[in-house]
Amino acid sequence: MGKGKLAKFADMERYENVFQYPYSVVDQVPFEMKGRWHEDYFHNDNPIVLELGCGKGEYTVGLAQLYPDMNFIGVDIKGSRMWTGATLALEQELKNVAFLRTNIEVIERFFTDGEVQEIWLTFSDPQIKKVSKRLTGTAFLERYRKFLADNGTVHLKTDSNFLFTYTTHVVSHNNLPLLFRTEDLYHTDGLDDETRRILSIRTYYENMWIERGLNIRYMKFGLPKTCSLEEPDVEIPVDEYRSYKRTKHTSRDTSK
């Protein structure tokens, strides 16, 4: 581990807006703020929005800047990346931002029923070979329902046609309320001003993909608490490009 990372981790240990509970910690130390984010951290009753897999935290901070009357929590396991957003939030004295360093597989341990109103998934790994690890798969949707308000909104913004198509089938197969969908976000006419405002935030990796001529896809859907969830039985073409720091998968990989 380089000196830069060590220094960042040292900063994170003292940052008041960062909570660190990876697997090695969460199994030993209970998260006492579960169900008490409003009272113990934000000190208000404003809606809570999560960004899962927040990376550098650009989207979390960007949303917090746009919506001071809402609370935002960026979640990721990569502390050295998260440091960027956490540092910026402190420098800008944003009181409606927090960061949680943990494994998303245990996200339900940190929030209670109805405590979260919206979830953002920004450029998640499509997990082409592992259905159970897809953040829009039914395994994760079941996790989200343990703390997301009834009919809470899930946003997906992605460069991956595979993940976008898969999520479309998940939403359709389970009759989830589809609120908006576009396969080419920045060339879609008729977006309302509020949507344009939100979607104007661009992450570091998003700008790289746009420069490579890739379409950015976006959808949002509601997640009711009561409906049954099933995986769609469909075959989906894999992505035909090498996304940043991702390997290209073959159709043989997908079938495994």
TrEMBL record:
Coiled coil: none annotated. S-adenosyl-L-methionine binds at residues 51, 76, 103, 125. GO terms for molecular function: tRNA (guanine(46)-N7)-methyltransferase activity. Substrate binds at residues 129, 159, 203-206. It comes from the Bacteria. Pfam families: Methyltransf_4. Keywords: Methyltransferase, S-adenosyl-L-methionine, Transferase, tRNA processing. Pathway: tRNA modification; N(7)-methylguanine-tRNA biosynthesis. InterPro entries: SAM-dependent_MTases_sf, tRNA_(Gua-N-7)_MeTrfase_Trmb, tRNA_methyltr_TrmB_bact. It catalyses: guanosine(46) in tRNA + S-adenosyl-L-methionine = N(7)-methylguanosine(46) in tRNA + S-adenosyl-L-homocysteine. Its EC number is 2.1.1.33. Gene3D superfamilies: Vaccinia Virus protein VP39. Catalyzes the formation of N(7)-methylguanine at position 46 (m7G46) in tRNA. Belongs to the class I-like SAM-binding methyltransferase superfamily. TrmB family. This is tRNA (guanine-N(7)-)-methyltransferase.
